[in-house]
Design goal:
53% helix, 21 helices, 583 residues, Isoleucyl-tRNA Synthetase, Domain 1, single chain, four-stranded antiparallel sheet, four-stranded parallel sheet, 13 strands
Length: 583
């Protein structure tokens, strides 16, 4: 027998594929039955259309043969052919109850562990000595949600925070640091306001030829491996790491210092990248620069588009570092799949890097590189979100504003909570609202940053889901206080359509998480959680819990509420969103 805890689509798919083999021969056993949720029943099998062409019969004839061969005894009510050849499927209450109870007993809530892959994920990628701005929000939040989800599915996720920690700007940054000292207030700006430190260094570079000469000389020392210069460079990097930690802690993301894999990581490998490409006949000089010309990429003049791997002056650019990173992630990290959570404008650049790495043999056919394209965050004017002066909006300021806004809402709605409790709730709600608004939008689409909408208690928002969890927890606490809490092994028994709909919705959690891991689209989990919260609201309105006199019915409803709370909390956790105990 099939595992009753398996999601309905998976059970039905297996049964229908067995029916195809019996009705049409073993070569049809792998055909997709196209099981979809339906407005006419719980699910619908739409396979007859496609199979009809292969069999040379009408869809209704094929559907009738499927109906004759399929065995859904104990799973679904008797079916009939409808329309041009659809099979509407209504699951039995007993099957749904059994599956829901097995789901409740499963610590993983129906999430099946997958064959483990090694998956480096390149995300966040701020620059040393520069403040993270709103443009870093989505790469950080989406990347972290994907890392959490893939780990939950059983994969070996290797976080790769490809920070900008090398290059010519460090000459002026080191000289600026030397003028004030590594323990000065100016140096401390790297922890609190990196932009101010960077802009001060830049202003000196532009105003003083002597300073500019010293900065250029310092770059040569840095690239040459001078010990004192490297020590100063490391000091700047360490101070910036303190700043990164503050942002990541505020955002509740899982990146740590151990995940830093910046540009400097690959510095020594860059000459070999170029020499190996030349030796393989893949790179040649063009206008003084060393370039590859991967097939299929052309410019506006219809000429081959170059990927510059060594500049005319002898320096290296992003392409060289990215090629070295691909090589490292395959050869040293043993990647099966490499995920790049990077802005959509980098699509052509990354595609050319992947093509060059394929041509060089550094990216084998069995290793899949994926660019998770990140769209822009917009202001109310429809343009990229910036400050009034036109500067990129500081991420720290944006997050602090979100928490402050949430605190005002919490103060208004829950004045009965202590200061500490309101602080904690505001933190979870404010940060959760920003992250969820980002994650609930398709990652390659733009969205407008609107705190009022993000913090609304209605609609597809984090506060709506967090409130749903808080309400369920309140119900469970009241039941416990009244001495009517359901035992841990209380059985779910469905007594109305709202309970049935909620149980069916909960059974979709595992497949939804698997789909997010496969398609790398967190917004699908957000949509699922929102639908689950809505289903709970309908259930709560139709199925009184505390006022229910029948002890077994009350216990069943409490068990269904408890299962809903677990699914919502686990789903939010995969997105990196906390669920407060009360709101």
């Amino acid at each position: 027998m099939l595992d009753a805890m398996t999601a309905p689509e998976q059970v039905l798919t297996a049964r229908f594929q067995s029916a195809f083999a019996r009705a049409f021969g073993e070569e049809f056993a792998g055909a997709d039955p196209i099981i979809r949720p339906s407005q006419f029943a719980d699910f619908q099998c739409n396979a007859a259309m496609g199979l009809a062409k292969r069999l040379g019969q009408s869809p209704r004839q094929v559907a009738a043969q499927i109906l004759e061969a399929v065995d859904l005894d104990g799973i679904a009510e008797p079916m009939e052919v409808s329309g041009p050849g659809f099979l509407n499927i209504k699951l039995t209450a007993n099957w749904i109850e059994s599956a829901a109870n097995e789901l409740a007993a499963d610590a993983l809530l129906g999430v099946a562990k997958e064959e483990p892959l090694t998956v480096p994920i390149d995300y966040s990628a701020p620059n040393v000595a520069k403040e993270m701005h709103v443009g870093h929000l989505r790469t950080t939040v989406v990347g972290d949600a994907l890392a959490r989800t893939l780990e939950h599915l059983g994969h070996n996720v290797i976080r790769q925070n490809h920070i900008g920690d090398w290059g010519t700007p460090f000459g002026m940054l080191i000289e600026h640091l030397l003028e004030f000292g590594t323990d000065s207030e100016a140096a401390d700006l790297l922890r609190t306001n990196p932009n101010e430190f960077y802009q001060a260094a830049r202003a000196k570079f532009d105003a003083s030829e002597d300073f500019a000469d010293r900065a250029r000389a310092r770059v040569v020392l840095l690239q040459g491996g001078d010990a004192e210069t490297l020590e100063l460079w490391g000091r700047i990097r360490d101070l910036s790491k303190d700043y990164f930690r503050r942002i990541y802690a505020l955002l509740n993301v899982t990146l740590t210092d151990d995940d830093l894999a910046g540009e400097s990581t690959y510095n020594e490998a860059l000459p070999k990248v170029c020499s190996d490409l030349e030796a393989a006949g893949l790179a040649r000089e063009s206008d003084g620069a060393l370039c590859t010309f991967p097939e299929g990429f052309k410019g506006r003049d219809d000429k081959p588009l170059p990927l510059i791997v060594r500049k005319s002056g002898g320096g290296y650019g992003y392409a060289t570092t990215d090629l070295a990173a691909v090589r490292y992630r395959v050869s040293e990290l043993h990647a099966n799949r490499i995920i790049y959570v990077i802005g959509a404008p980098q699509e052509i650049h990354l595609a050319m890097v992947f093509a060059t790495a394929r041509d060089a043999g550094w990216l084998p056919a069995e290793v899949e590189p994926v660019h998770v394209k990140i769209g822009n965050v917009l202001g109310e004017d429809g343009k990229i979100l910036r400050t009034r002066s036109g500067a990129p909006l500081r991420l720290m300021s944006l997050l602090q504003e979100a928490v402050a806004h949430a605190r005002r809402v919490v103060d208004e709605l829950r004045p009965d909570l202590s200061e500490e409790e309101r602080d904690a709730v505001a933190q979870d709600v404010g940060i959760g609202a920003v992250k969820y608004a980002d994650l609930s939008t398709s990652h390659d689409a733009e969205y407008v940053f609107d705190l009022e909408r993000m913090l609304a208690l209605q609609g597809n928002t984090a506060p709506y889901l967090q409130y749903a969890v808080a309400r369920i927890r309140s119900i469970l606490r009241k039941a416990d206080a009244a001495g009517i809490a359901a035992p841990a092994d209380a059985q779910i028994r469905l007594s109305n359509d709202a309970e049935r709909a909620l149980a069916l919705q909960l059974l979709q959690f595992g497949p939804t998480v698997a789909q997010v891991g496969q398609l790398l689209e967190p917004h699908r989990l957000c949509a699922y959680l929102f639908q689950t919260a809505q289903a709970f609201t309908a259930f709560y309105e139709a199925s009184p819990i505390m006022k229910e006199a029948d002890e077994s019915v009350r216990a069943s409803r409490l068990a269904l509420a408890r299962l809903t709370e677990r699914v919502l909390v686990q789903g939010l956790a995969l997105l990196g969103v906390n669920a407060p105990q009360q709101m």
